[in-house]
Amino acid sequence: MRLADTHCHLYCEPLGSKAADALSRARDAGLEFIVVPADYRDSWPFVESLAGDGFLLPALGLHPWGAAPVDIHDLRARLEGCGAVAVGEIGLDRVVEAPAFEDQLRCFEPQLDLALEMDLPVLLHCRKAFDDLEAVIRRRGSSVRGFLHAFSKSPDIALRFASLGLVVAFGGAVTRPRARKARASAAALPLESIALETDAPSIGMLDIRPEDVEPWHVMLAAEAIAGIRGVTAEEIGEATTANARRVLRLE
Ligand SMILES: [Zn+2]
Q1: What is the pLDDT of residue 141?
Q2: Neighbours of ion ligand 1 (CB under 5 A)
Q3: What does pTM read for this prediction?
């Protein structure tokens, strides 16, 4: 079965300490690659150390929770230096009170513009700021590509972002029967607009605590979406892996 994890914070504990074992389980499960996004500045050296790995694909950017002025020339050099496949994790978050939303925008927009300039996809974090995020993307036309990560919201939001050309990435939420909105979105989206991720080790799956989630668990998300859509898990694995490769320009 083809699988890929488009979002895993491999350096975060407790996953970081068992990364070697988790990666061998991921390879055994048939994962083709794992995208490892940065979050705060202190994660950048780890992500940059993945340069040339081929299985672990680096993505560099500053998360809205750590929003601060970004030296775009420095970020560009670092993205080029490690062969980053995406700019991320970046985005907007109206749930947190700090950093201030205006500061998040000042951090996010230059990174989004850098991704466009470098023709890289983005890994987008968004909580309660979907209208803001949509407006920021629409102002840039239709050329933004990337993943709307850890999606758990309703089909109207999912379809709006899919129509902008973004792929919607599902992980833990779709595995939980009570996550009705996420599951309705996984049913409503065109198959070419869906990807899989774990966001390990931060989001639990059905019967698995967040701290125990690791990349091979994307298989559970594939099985959940397959059940929702009435197709085989292999079909979901095949399509979502192909979608991720298309967005990341991996051949
Ligand atoms: Zn993340």
Answers
A1: 84
A2: 89, 199
A3: 0.97
